[in-house]
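Dear support,

I submitted the protein below through the web form. The confirmation email said the job was done, but the results page showed an empty box. After a refresh the structure appeared. I'm attaching both so you can tell me whether what I see now is the final result or a partial one.
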Amino acid sequence: MSAFVESGVPVIVQGMTGRQGMTHTARMLAAGTNIVGGVNPRKAGTVVPFLTGPRNDSEATREIPVYANCGEARAATGAQASVVFVPPRFAKDAVVEAIEAGIGLIVVITEGIPVADTAYFVELALRKGVRVIGPNCPGLVTFSDDMQQPGVNLGIIPDGIVNYGPLALVSKSGTLTYQLMGELADIGFTTCIGAGGDPIVGTTLQEALQIFEKDEDTKAVVMIGEIGGNAEQDAAAWAAEHMSKPVVAYIAGFTAPEGKQMGHAGAIVSGGKGTAQDKRDALEAAGIRVGETPGQTAGIMREMLTVKR
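What the results page shows now:
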């Protein structure tokens, strides 16, 4: 059992038959994720073949059935998690459908969802006891040291660049997630989660730290933040009181001009608040060292692990 999801958990993909859904469903299957169905009311009753072996072996395929809705998919497959690749204007209804169907973990990859829509389904998920990751995120990937129990890849994070190890990572940035994973690939990870860069997300940096603190296999955490909002300050305040494991952070956006959105919808400094320096000050006051570059951040983590031993 990883910090967020159990190996072998049955997974459905909402929007599986779209271009992005098809591409990343193939990747997730190749990583060992147990995808048991897709959801698309217009293609319900069909099956989609995915290659599971070498590309020149056309017989090595797995046929994934498509269901009309999440309730039907869960009844037929026992699905416990969903990955959402549905376009922004339909994403709210898709996530609500998954919540009402009793799916316990929902990873929302979609970018550009209206904030009011996200606020609605995040609040509903909280009331129903459902874990939402995202939106506007690369997803979640876990690793295992047991060859009989492969990890789980839910989303678009490239799993082939690292293996199992003692670190965990939580990030507001997709590409920086991949970079820090690569920088620390020789050490390895238990779990890497993209929290998402929107103003409202289902799982915050602080909540991720709380989960990693309880996870016995995780020995240290890398946290990647960026300008905008106060998620990093909230995480720092909690960590100062409760975190026993080493945390190293990197904050993107020290040169960002005020009032200009930088990449993510939530990455904007407004009214002089949410600057990278504000976040760095809060983290360092909580005893969390902050690297000036991804490479330096990885170096600090290596140093801390050496001292800890």
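Response: this is the final, complete result; the empty box was a page-load delay. The chain has nine helices and 14 strands.
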